[in-house]
Prior knowledge:
single chain; alpha+beta; 17 helices; 24% strand
Amino acid sequence: MKEVFIVESQTDANELIPCLAKFLKKGEYKTSVCKGHIREIREGNTYRKEKDYGINLNTYAPDYVIKDPKTVNILKKDIEGADMVYLVTDQDREGEAIAWHLKEVLGLKKYKRMPCYEYTYKTVKAAYDNAGLINENLVESQVGRAVLDKLVGYDLSPLIQKKFCIHSLSGGRIQSVALLLVCEREKEIMNFVPEDFYDISVDLQEVVSSKVFNAKLVGFDGKKLGERDVKDEALFNSINSDLNRADYIIKDIKTELKTASKIRPFKATTMQKAMPWDPDKTMSIAQKLKDKNLITYHRTDSTRVPEDKLAEAKAFIEANYGSEYTSFYIQPGKEKGVQDGHVAIMPTDINKTPTSEALKSLSPDEKKLYVTIWKQFMGAMMAPEKYNLTTAIIGANKCDFKALGSVTVFDGASKIIRENNRVELPKLSVGDKLNLIELKCEKKQTKPPARYDERSLAAKLDEEKIGRPSTISTYPKTLKQRKYVVKDKNDGKLHPTELGMEVCEGLSEYVKSIMDVKFTSILEEQLDDIADGNLTKEKMLSDFYPGFCKEIKNAEVEMEKPVELSEKCPKCGGTLLLRHGKYGKFKSCSNYPDCNYSYDERPKPKVVEGTCPECGSPLVEKNGKYGTFIGCSNYPNCKYIQQEKKKDYGKCPICDGVIGIRRAKKGTFYGCSNYPDCKFATWYEPTDKKCPKCGYPLGDRKTKAIHELKCTNKDCDYSIKR
């Protein structure tokens, strides 16, 4: 008997093989790698007159194409003669769809679906024993989402590109809502009117112990006061006058036993929010921990914990902390918008503690993230902290103040997950007189809501149940790439650009269905209904798409109309219009073509030192397709461009050519001067150091997560950290 296990990546295969070896005989099984989806919806073209979506608009059936024929051929050879093929992909909608594509393309007759959330002996054996059929409802939901997002993107992107004459712009179902959230927050900040209020508190001293503590004003003349309720200057003066001649006496004291809120293990967005990095870096580091089989799947929206993990955690806690620290974990209920295809993010082996020898090989960032995940998971498995909360009410003439203090009775989860920073009040009794150390009266202003950063924007999308956990962290990055938002270098907050605000306003006015957080969330709920078998993808799409098409057609007409300005044309007195052109905004006369007046809104090019060697005109700095360059100010009459001085990166390792900078659509790379006869090329900037394995120059490879010297020979895997 021969069994073939198809997994998504070579890393998965490396982790799966040792588990299979424990219950299957050597030679009776093998693994094969599909590299994720082997099919995708055919690329359409919506810029032609007859638009092509790669989707049948009558039935909403996608037209699939093979992504990598070479991989498919390898898979077909690997399964030849197999008695059973196990499809070992992730246990969410994407994983189910990947398995379905494999079944369809490979023509599988004898197969079993074997979803795994981690590669340990227990989970792999359980998945093997319970392997079954593909869940067609999950496949339908994934296909429905893919078709929906393709249709929306194919219609929105050309609309935005045509309006603003910038081909790199795009729109999408989730991306556009993410932009809406950023722009709406910016409007809140712009329209925010600060209010003055007085913050009043006192520092008091208990006579016997001499301990000083702080108390906040909570009432005056029999009326309760909130933190910002003292806004009127007359009221403040009355309070201030009353306090200057007051005695401070304990009116009431109360102590209650409190239990801290139970915490949950991380899911993707809560993990991102807990770390000080941008979401991309956090997910990149988490991927490395997953590849090393230290944590379970990290792109999850679930906080569910398997029963065997609960038992394992309980045993560990009893052995290391005591039975009083164990707790019953309540599994999350089924929520709308939560796929729950994976379990919570947790260590695969909880015995690999923050001080474990197994972590010594990790980078500082990898260890920091692993330790945070380990502590969060173990804290969620432990009994919560219990503490005594003491509330003291202090009377001072007509004023009442409140002081709070707490003492930990049982540390529980706080033993490992966070520092204990509780502040204890001195021993107090009703009727005690206190010494006034300082009366603090500070005039403050209310603050506007904070702008989103990348982490909080991803968390907001998750809160609204919009998007998938595997991609939700990418939308802030997409908004930056499209120049819809910029990231403040000082505080890391996202600020919408003028372009971003205009795109958001245009779509909000004419494509309201997409620019509606609640409606987008409803679409996510409908995808859940498809996954549950309560709705078909055809019904969901036919209810949505025709109305959306009408909005797009109306927007194509309305958004093309120029904005009428109050200014008059200096040439003929006609009304000036604000238009968008290839190079940005410009003003033009409404009487065009009878009047050809126009005024470019762009800033004038910066004049630099030197003159054009061809016509003698001044040289100016300009912006082009590949960034800034220096050219003649007499363009288009003179098309002189100052050539960039090319740096010499040494001799080509293949021929007698010289390595220099080259440019392509994807960015800067380094190649041989004898191209196309010599094909040497690398994305890494060559250094003067040579590879000890093959002699090629080492290139400087720098990303957010790593900085290393890597061999520029594509067939050599040598690298060393910098």
